[in-house]
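The instructor's notes for this session suggest beginning with a concrete chain rather than abstract definitions. Hand out the sequence below and ask the class to guess, before any prediction is shown, which regions might be ordered.
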Amino acid sequence: MPLFRVTCQITPPRVLPVLLLAAMVPAAAAAQPPATDDDPGIPIENAAVREACGSCHEPDDAGRLSRISFRRTTPEGWQQTIRRMVTLNDTTITPETAREVVRFLANTLGLAPDEARPAAYEAERRADDQPYDDAEIQQICTQCHSMGRVISQRRTEDEWSLLMAMHRGYYPFADFQAFRRTGPSSPDPQPVDQAIAHLSERFPLDTPEWAAWSATMRPARVAGTWLLRGQAHGIGAVYGRVTIMAVPGTVDEFTTETRYVYARDGRRVTREGRAIIYTGFQWRGRSSEGPDDADGLREVMFVERDWQTMSGRWFTGAYDEVGLDVTLERVAGAPVLSGVHPPALRIGATETLRVYGMNLAPQPPPGAIDLGPGIEVLRIIETTTDWMDIEVRVDDTAAVGVRDLFLDQAALPGAVTVYDTVHRVAVTPQAGMSRVGGIRFPKQYQQFEARAFHDGPDGESDTDDDRDLGLVDVTWTLEEYAATFGDDDIRYVGAIDPQGRFTPAEDGPNVERSGDRNNIGDVWVIATYAGNADDDAVPRARAHLLVTVPLYLRWEPAAVEQP
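After discussion, reveal the predicted structure:
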């Protein structure tokens, strides 16, 4: 799978960073003395890596390359390293060689599943950073990037020291932001020294996890048919199938054909793609919806050790902000259920319920469909191998709660929820962020969604026993978040559409705004639900939206572009 294409070289001034780096790194670390046979480090025998990297990274007698052999990371980590070499060090490398180098390094100096899983949100480009158990270390590192960037690496102590020195050399403000204390002197180690000690102990090069995984690692055999379950934020559930085919002559490359449907609006999608699996479990792919789909979707998934399931995120957008959470389950010949729509049924209602799955019987026998007490299956309207429409009625005396679905030999736990009224709605995310753009920088959109809830057995809102009724249609509006006197952000920041998607205004000064200010600010996003026709209460919820400036500094140099 082509990860990237090198198109040009950028040669920025490097004198000052190099001088600073030389001044900050201890002589022993800067030179990285020749390793002995007893030192950690992973030999590199690959000819492409040695040819592409060996002119700068000196090999030793044990076959280890300086810097490279003393670090392990994800495919994205090695990809970023090559980008840095091209952009900052004038490295010339062809796309084909770059792909081979990334493949070898990700497989040979990669991460074990247990090491990669806690940092999966970094590769999946999720906006929700995960908390780290050491608040001081988190404060040091997250001034500029997520902790996922950190915990997806394994290094020797010398390598962690060199990494810190690189930060101080290329980004001198790191000292003032996080690396060194200001104010009165203290006998305690500086934050940067604490970080080196902590990371060297917590994330060393040699680990039991990597030793165990590298001993059993092999190409994942994933060719076949897979059931797809997905969730698109603000759009709802996605159901379908993925057919995976091995690329002839390879053991880790695959082509894909994906067909799925958005359950709420019935929109059907067909995608074709290509993927590679690194380190025996790291799926990296790209798929497109026809020839006019210029951007496509990047696919990042985790293949479980039994090769029966995989899960992750498919995403796109200038800030990787649009995407699907997906789970794939291998399917043989037996029927399997993936979901239903709608996910909630109101007491006393008669509705058409669509059941999604694979290998469904065209004519299920009478009584084969069982939705539990209080739900009667009136008739089967239409059936295919991938979905079935049935007409159901919820009895007036049905109890509120979750029902399991059984269809012949297949089962779907928690398929539907029976409810009598919507007690509240909730908007997610509770704190959203968007970036102005469209002139000099791309826009970052923010998708909101509104979910309905029943209070559950305790009759109290926002408790653990509340019943999630799924996405509901609401009226979306914006209200001013009054932070100053005469606050007027709502007039300039952007607009939200009927589907809950916020589009920010353009970047740059706005002459129509006082002080020619940018179109930034913060507002309330309001969701109003009017589905309780028989009730006086109209559930309403809100979330905070911050509209800010573009991300001016992104480590994605022009020297590297997506294929």
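Then share the key points. Residues 75-89 form the longest helix (15 residues). Residues 5-216 form one domain.
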